[in-house]
Hints:
- By secondary structure, the protein is α+β, with helices and mostly antiparallel strands.
- It has helices at about 10-35, 240-305, 310-325, 330-334; strands at about 40-45, 50-60, 60-65, 70-85, 90-100, 105-110, 115-120, 120-130, 135-140, 150, 155-160, 165-170, 175-185, 190, 190-195, 200, 205-210, 215-235.
- The relative contact order is 0.13.
Amino acid sequence: MGSRRSPAGRLRGIYVCVVALIAALALAVAPAYANAASPVLEFATPSHSFPVPFEAEGGAVTAELAGFETVVSCAKSHGDGVITGPRSTVSNYVFQECETQSGAQTCKSDGAGEGEITADLIEGDLVYIDQAKHEVGILLNPREGPYMNFKCGGEAVEASGRFLSPVGPINKEATSFTATLSSEDAMQTPSEYEGVDGEKLQAIPTGERENGQMGTTGVDLSFAIQTSESLAIKAVSKEEVEAKQREEEDAAAAAKKRQDDEAAAKKRQEDEVAAAAAAKKRLEEQQAKSDRLKRRHLLSKGLTGCRKAQSKHKRTRCEKRIKKKYGGSAVRND
């Protein structure tokens, strides 16, 4: 994240020139974190869109180059920059009151004020330092070229290579963040980060003296970052993504099972109702048939009795009465 190597207006002008490239690079990297089983790592801006400007205020800084006895210290540091996309930043820095630790020599960049060291425009990528521990950092100068030149007592030093700045807080929406550089024996720490597939990659900055001598560099510095808009550094590990996917799959399977069980229960109920209706219909048909047989029997028996009447008139009256009582379409149609 960045610094005021020049006024904020100049940074915005430089930003306009490089933002398209940064955005393209961000989009190129995006699919690596977009796979279903990939971790999530991004600047999340819930209520606004990119770019998001920020200011960086730091205190004293010390820098050591391996094999170079002189340790450079600066009393003040500050910067500004822009978060250009979900995982990308562009920024610059200025360090003031810089001198060798002994105080014998003043250090400065060409064109800068006395005791002032300025950095070139520095790109940054959001990376995992340790995914399992949710340790996140900004990989500064990811394309590894020179990013700073200065002289101490007339001897030129060029700084190059990529380096890591752990950042925080993680998974918490805020406008205030910290970015810290630490070193041990002229070696930047941490010096490794994780690639998109979890592989370990190195981030080791180097310095080159005017005589061509190369060495690792170590810088100690802490920046307080203030963003213009509230955002969160969202970090979700691959294991957490997979666990969430399993949870969602289990929930979907449970919901489908409930739906299937409900559909099966409804089908059973419909089958039971249909079976009961069919049984009732069969019973009613059997009862109707039994009633018809009974009426036919009574009709036959009654007519037989009517034939025993001595007069035709009585027989006719008897048959008419019996047919009216036990006859009808039900009997005739059986």
